[in-house]
Automatic annotation (TrEMBL):
It comes from Ilex paraguariensis (yerba mate). This is Amino acid transporter transmembrane domain-containing protein. GO terms for biological process: amino acid transport. Coiled coil: none annotated. Residues 1-12 have a biased composition (Basic and acidic residues).
Length: 469
């Protein structure tokens, strides 16, 4: 196959002539790939572990000690199988150019399934990115408010009435994002991704530590096999929402191709990626089980929706403040990580459609005292400000952490993690309809679709109930 020579592949030739087609990562010149198994594991873990980990204890409380861990293992298995299917789609055969690399999820869908399917896939990706931005506004504001409440409880006692709103903190977070969104592209904020990853591990570890300390201090493991006691109808909705929250915490489909494209060969990139996915998902699942398990064991039926802002923990207040500050810092960077790919698509599309427009293509230099020189683009300023304002406004209308995570997790889990990977695998491997392998894959897809629909319906019901109750 001559894999060694392909370390310097040219860009996918099928994508060079496409004008206006949305791509999650711009076409790049050839570069030497130096990624290894361990760098891939690190990328996956930092991409997966995020604010979703804070809702896992609540999810376990709804499902109980048997169904809860089994649900996490189910989503771990599905995510792993999906990653195996996707890793085989990194290279696509082509009669003229030979095997070509797909450097992003969207490129793989376009090359394998065609442009119309890729547009549908692109829509789901953008919904995922936009929805994650909304979730990050909600979570960051909740954490900022938790710091204020924690200090109030420490000063006036745990029985004090310490109630503060979210709106001001959401506006503050939105204002910061308006400024940060003016960075020209993703490469100008790579340092944010590193900081965000460190913060993510910090607050997740603190959550586990506080839960474990409370279980040890109380000397009792709370919780039950069936989970929180409630009526049958309420149980159905809460279980559905819990599945949506777990679904939000796991998949990393849309970043898998970018990670695999960094790997050197030999050995073949798909083999390295499969090993990395297995290791990373095992580590992540252990981490999730610890965080969710200790949280549920510590609080039982009273497990808060957000482990660090629900105030099951009051002391040490400074550690809770630090953990919530880590969440805010993580989400400041995380918002940009999820928004910049969409910004790049919009900039590229409008730039190509209106090449002579000064409003879209001209840049202006702004020099402020004691600050580095800034280059402003009027179109970027207007569009990105409107984008941040819209995510902030929706977050203010629906400021419900668990419910929003459940909707987002359910909405994107089946199409991005199951349907497109299965269809691409069938096309690339020429798996004909009604063969045994095709039937197994379709059953797998249908089962995951049913789980996703249950989670989506339950999460939407929870969101509407929270809004109008």
């Amino acid at each position: 196959m001559g894999i060694e020579e392909e370390n310097h592949d040219h860009e996918n030739p099928l994508l060079q002539s496409r004008s206006g087609f949305p791509s999650s990562s711009p076409v790049q010149p050839p570069f030497k790939r130096t990624g290894t198994l361990w760098t891939a594991v690190a990328h996956i873990i930092t991409g997966v572990i995020g604010s979703g980990v804070l809702s896992l204890a609540w999810s376990l409380a709804q499902l109980g000690w048997i169904a809860g861990p089994l649900s996490m293992l189910f989503f771990a298995f599905v995510t792993l199988l999906s990653s195996f299917l996707l890793s085989n789609c990194h290279r696509s055969p082509h009669p003229e150019h030979g095997p070509i690399r797909n450097r992003s999820y969207l490129e793989a869908v376009h090359t394998t399934l065609g442009e119309k399917t890729a547009w549908v896939c692109g829509l789901f990706i953008q919904i995922n990115l936009y929805g994650t931005g909304i979730a990050y506004v909600i979570t960051s504001a909740t954490s900022m408010r938790a710091i204020q409440i924690s200090n109030c409880y420490h000063k006036y006692g745990h029985e004090a009435t310490c109630e503060f709103g979210n709106s001001l903190f959401m506006l503050l977070f939105g204002a910061v994002q308006v400024v940060m969104s003016q960075a020209p592209d993703f490469h100008n904020i790579q340092w944010l991704s590193i900081v965000a990853a460190i913060m993510s591990f910090a607050y997740s570890t603190i959550g586990i530590g506080l839960g474990a300390a409370k279980v040890i201090g109380d000397g009792i493991v709370k919780g039950s096999i069936e989970g929180v006691s409630m009526s049958a109808a309420q149980k159905v909705w809460s279980v559905s929402q819990a599945l949506g929250d777990i679904a939000f915490a796991y998949p990393y489909s849309i970043i898998l191709m970018e990670i695999q494209d960094t790997l050197k060969s030999p050995p073949p990139e798909n083999e390295t990626m499969k090993k990395a996915s297995t290791m990373a998902i095992c580590i992540t699942t252990f981490f999730y089980l610890c965080c969710g398990g200790f949280g549920y064991a510590a609080f039982g039926d009273q497990t808060p929706g957000n482990l660090l802002t629900g105030f099951g923990f009051y002391e040490p207040y400074w550690l809770i403040d630090f953990a919530n500050a880590c969440i805010v810092i993580h989400l400041v960077g995380g918002y940009q990580v999820f928004s910049q790919p969409f910004f790049a698509i919009v900039d590229k599309w409008f730039g190509e459609k209106f090449p002579d427009s000064d409003f879209i293509n001209s840049h202006y230099t702004l020099k402020l005292p004691w600050l580095p020189t800034l280059k402003l683009n009027l179109f970027r300023l207007c569009f990105r400000t409107a984008y941040v304002a819209s995510t902030t406004a929706i977050a203010m209308i629906f400021p419900y952490f668990n419910q929003v995570l459940g909707v987002l997790g359910a909405l994107n889990f089946w199409p991005l993690s199951i349907y497109f990977p299965v269809e691409m695998y069938c096309v690339q491997r020429n798996i004909r309809a009604w063969t045994s392998k095709w039937i197994v894959l379709q059953i797998f897809s249908i089962v995951c679709l049913l789980v996703t629909m249950i989670a989506l319906i339950g999460s939407i019901e929870g969101l509407l109930t929270a809004k109008f109750s």
